[in-house]
Amino acid sequence: MDRPDVPSGSTAPQGSRDHPTFQEVYPGFPEPQFEPLTFTRRSPDETLARARAFYEEMQTRRTTRHFSRDAVPREVIEWAVLSAGTAPSGAHRQPWRFVAVQDPDLKARIREAVEAEEYRTYTARMTDEWRSALAALGTDYVKEHLTDAPWVVVVFREKYGLRNDGTTYKNYYTVESVSMAVGLFLAAIHHAGLTTLTHTPNPMGYLSELLGRPRNEEPLIVMPVGYPAPDAHVPKLSRKPLAEIFQVDLGPSGQ
Ligand code: IYR
């Protein structure tokens, strides 16, 4: 007898009602290869201690605009990019590309292009509401961190895939995927003992030309990376307490 959820006349092998077989979902495709999960199961006490220790490290992360010119070895950036690349991604397309700029002339050209646009943003494009939101941070169009920091990492999002023969294919959830990778990059840089600043110049299409990236890639975020300057400062801010960012089960309206 046919299962009601399988088109009648289907010759596909039938799995259980709750869990279709691979061939039912992906007719004609080769079976995927699996391997055992490598996983360290820790005791509840250790789990809690590690969760807390990680928070304690992350809560010291701050965004400063004041970078030292001290050098940072390329290998440190490479490890952080490898950490970023452990992020999950839509259909495992890994649609990210981290372009790390250290050449002073190239950094200067990036700064020049960014500041030209940011000048327009701050003097003309910004609404009053936006301006009032940024007043507490005191940001402006001068981006000295783009030339002070030893590295400027520009993260590109592969909007779609591009084969060598020029044909294209779809990618999935690229903004979510690349954003997750950027989050891991921030954690990796902080863990390594460096600092970075997430900068989103807008527009920033010119970065594709400056850095020679193909048409299927779009810049998403710019991150100077280095040590903080000795006199680095940060705005006095507080983070939302747990009660404001977390809820378990039903909220106020969910009776
Ligand atoms: N992209 C601009 C403006 C800016 C916008 C927000 I929202 C910020 O949190 C900070 C800055 C800039 O980078 O200066």
From TrEMBL:
Residues 59-227 form the Nitroreductase domain. It comes from the Bacteria. The keyword Oxidoreductase applies. Residues 1-38 are annotated as: Disordered. CDD domains: iodotyrosine_dehalogenase. The keyword Transcription regulation does not apply. Keywords: Flavoprotein, FMN, Oxidoreductase. This is Oxidoreductase. Pfam families: Nitroreductase. InterPro entries: Nitroreductase (IPR029479), Nitroreductase-like (IPR000415), Nitroreductase/BluB (IPR050627).
